[in-house]
Amino acid sequence: MNRKQLLNKFLANQCSAEEAKLVFSWLNENPKLLDDLISEDDWTSYIAQEKNVKRRNGNISKIFTVFVVFGLLFFCSNLFEERHGQIAQDIIRKTYYNPLSRPKEIITDDESHLILAPGALVQVRIKSNLDFRYVKVLEGKVQFEVAKDPSKPFIVESDQLTTTALGTQFIVNYTSRSKDVLVQLLEGKVRVAHIMQSAAQVKILKPGQQIHFSAASQMVLSDFGNTSKGTDRLVNFLPRLISTAKEKEYSYPMTIHQSTNWLEMEETSLSEIIQYINHELDMPVSYDSLLVRNYRLKGRFRRNATMDLQDKTQLAESILQLIVEVNPFKLEKQQNTYILKPKK
């Protein structure tokens, strides 16, 4: 398939995700490519099919520029197919691309902020009725300020890595050609995991830490906060966003007590227990706050004196297992995230 055929396929919204990425790279390098390969009659015919775009006289490149700025962010919303079949097909999908020479800010439905560096391409699935919030970085550098919602983990996929946060600021930089991924944490805490998860392939980042992933080195943890190289990576972005909303911060439940070898829960609401699992055991859990609001749990669990990530995961899974055994709930797992749902 030559360039003209692929561009026609692109304009007809019939190309695959990989084909779309290729077209985006062409247009980013040469915005006049459509002028060269598509006739004015073909372009005018396509414009006539778009309900929100009126025909204008003048240079075709100007029409295309207006189209990019105001329409290109949304017309590919159904472009991408699911790779693993893990996410339901009825999810509303939006694709955003930054063709500009400066960073571009996107505000999602949950009021999270995404800052796209020039050439960045992302796919977003965020709706209030979904189990979790999901963004896929297909190309480039993106800075995230995640709106706090303890019941809906925020998951960013970039090639073979998933980065999960509840409410925080971080950067994901993905180069599709080399398959390199860089995750940098600015505030809060994130869990970075390989798609084929194992205990050795999960890292918890603190502010100033980063993960570099490549086919050769796998996951390498290091600090960037005290190095000029790390600082330079952040300077090129828009100024840090300050959230004006007053969010309820997590506080340790007074009904959960720890000793050297035991974790003991008095009667504790499921919402508090799940937030404890999220924050203290670094295990993302999605749940419906209205569904669990009238349920409480009491129990005692063995724990180690020193808890590594594998120990925390085992303890979290033990607590979740008890929740579903004594309550009308079931557990599912998607994108390395447990989802608490009602039994049917």
TrEMBL record:
Alphabetically ordered keywords of this record: Membrane, Transmembrane, Transmembrane helix
InterPro entries in the record: FecR (IPR006860), Ferrdict_sens_TM (IPR012373)
Domain of life: Bacteria
Plastid recorded as keyword: no
Transmembrane regions: 60-80
Domain FecR protein: 105-191
One Pfam family from the record: FecR
Protein name stated in the entry: FecR protein domain-containing protein
Organism expressing this protein natively: Sphingobacterium ginsenosidimutans
